[in-house]
Amino acid sequence: MDQKPHSPKRWLLALGVSALATVSFSTANAGTAAAPKNPVVDAADWKANTIAPVTNPIFFEDPVIRSEIRPIFVYHTIDNNFITGGGHATLYALQLRYALTDRFALIATQDGHFDIDSPGLDVDGWMDLAAGFKYALIDDAAHQFILTPGLTFHIPTGDREVFQGRGGGEFNPFVSFSKGYGDFHITGNLGLRIPVTSNEQNLMAHYSLMLDYYTCRWFIPFVSANFWTNLNDGNNIGLRSNGYDVINFGANNVNGVTQGTLGFGFRSRVVSNVDLGFAYEIAVARPYGLTNNRLTVDMCIRF
Predict the structure, then answer these.
(1) Which is the most buried residue in 111, 171, 243, 275, by most CB within 10 A?
(2) Closest CA to 53 of 301, 224, 200
(3) Domains detected in the chain
(4) What angle do CA 101, 65, 131 make, to 5 degrees?
(5) Which of 55, 60, 52 has its CA nearest to residue 76?
(6) 152: which DSSP letter?
């Protein structure tokens, strides 16, 4: 496949080099310094024990303002009743968040390479780029509560073979929150996917919730739910379902259709500034469409 003049590949490669450098730095320091102390005892800020969502990583945005590089791997199985006749898909992605202040951050939430391997479809290509910002409107440490609205824009830079690079782009206004009760946290997100070209892509509401408990730095379990409701019909493809977080098909028979997943997993704070995440999800709202189940692994590298 010929590389596009402005391929996300260059951007992804540059961030990958940065991620490797950060990991190397952290590992070197871990070898010479004392083991990280328990943040429950040492952190004055309750947000030190909160975790970024692992599931729905493109749209379930962390309300906490942090600077981080986040490599992501997703292995996704396709429901056998979908038009492709089953199969699987893999995604390799990298996200970047940079806190300009303790309340305002620039965020790059989507990029990467997507590979679909199924009996009816065998394609691969680059995802669209998505970037924007978020601002912590309420940050109330006394009540362990944070509320963060934000906005991202999906730029149609990806490959059409994997249903990217279509339409005029997509806006995603959202609001995220987190409420702490000691070591127990409730984190949620609500947003709207607004396509510039509504006949090419569908208008969708998305909403997510995660419950986590900080047992110790090595094991922070969570459960999560992510749902998408289609609010119009497009005319791009004849489907009764949509592509959850990875693809906006512009399907022509989805108005009012809700799809969603339930998931569980954990994070582990391997060093003071690196969290590993693992999650398993299953589709729970018919029509399942593109999703049967999904495994997500990521690494939040803070700086």
Answers:
(1) 111
(2) 224
(3) 8-302 (2.40.160.40)
(4) 90
(5) 55
(6) E
